[in-house]
Amino acid sequence: MTKMKAWVLAARPKTLTASVLPIVATTGMVYGLNHEIQWWIVACALLSSFCIQIGTNFVNDAMDFKKGADKEGRLGPMRVTQQGHFTFKQVMLMATAFFVLATAFGVPLVMHGGMPIAIIGLLSILMGYAYTSGPMPLAYFGLGDLFVILFFGLVAVCGFHYLLTLELFSTNAIVLGLQVGFLNTILIAINNLRDIEGDRLVNKKTLAVYLGKTGARIWIGFLCIAPFLMGYYWLNQHLWYVYGAPLITFPLGMSIAKKIFRNEPGVIYNKFLGQSAGYGLLFSILIAIGFQIK
User: Fold this and answer.
1) Where are the domains of the chain?
2) Which CATH number fits domain 17-292: 2.60.40, 1.20.120, 1.10.600, 2.40.10?
């Protein structure tokens, strides 16, 4: 394997939809509600978000190896530190490089949005490190799912909405942020259920470990239907198509949940991860389209 291919795999490209969902959904909402879109903001926000997620993935790759969570026979995709393609130090340096890039792309956004965006950017990078490193790594204390709901849902959508509109508070953005957050959390929830036995052995107390297999399955089922439950808000706002358009994805969400209940955690869950990424992306595209239909 070439070094370039190893770096690409370490970035976990199939999971990067988590950075796209908030941008697509929020852009659709803002444009559909008659705000002008400044596309340079969209581009900078997307690039910065990509870099933060890639940096977080690299930190996760290195730290899980260091803590013993990644061993021979792991069920998930290849980890480059564990496989010896790169050293712990090399992967951490690459993570830092991507966080620096995220900062560079974020500077114009801070100049436009001011202190709120500076705080969001700084917290996002710090949490990228804190997800699997530091004195209390979030992923090792059952807080990974909450991290995703907050930073790949609420914070991402509300922060981006503020950049596009300069409105500091928006109920619409909060509701959309929760919908996106739930969709993105499906990825980590499936990942953690797949690895539940290995995580128990190394005392990595993910939410799946705390809940057990049955509880983790119920949690994934909830995450699959929660965006539709939150969608009743749009009905109350008489935005019928915003609620209705994403309903096309409901069978896919239910199919993923059903497969999780019917299959024991294993390699097959990697297939479900890809399906859940597609589910979230399709939902966000359709809700964005829904905002355009008057």
Assistant:
1) 17-292
2) 1.10.600
| pLDDT per residue as tens digits for the range 210-245 | 999 999 999 999 999 999 999 999 999 999 999 999
* pTM reported for the whole predicted model: 0.91
| Rounded distance between C-alpha atoms, residue 200 and residue 218, angstroms | 19
